[in-house]
Amino acid sequence: MNTIITTVNMLLDIANCLRVMSGLLDLPAAYGEPIQSSRRQHLHI
Length: 45
Hints:
The protein is mainly alpha-helical and about 45 residues long. It has one helix spanning about 1-45.
């Protein structure tokens, strides 16, 4: 039982690391424009 829990925790840690790394790499392209465009849409609505 403990080995299953530790394995799941390890996989979650790896997934979090990958998400953070890709997030840092994609931050300007992925989050810069959509946030501004969504703000403009909210302002227009």
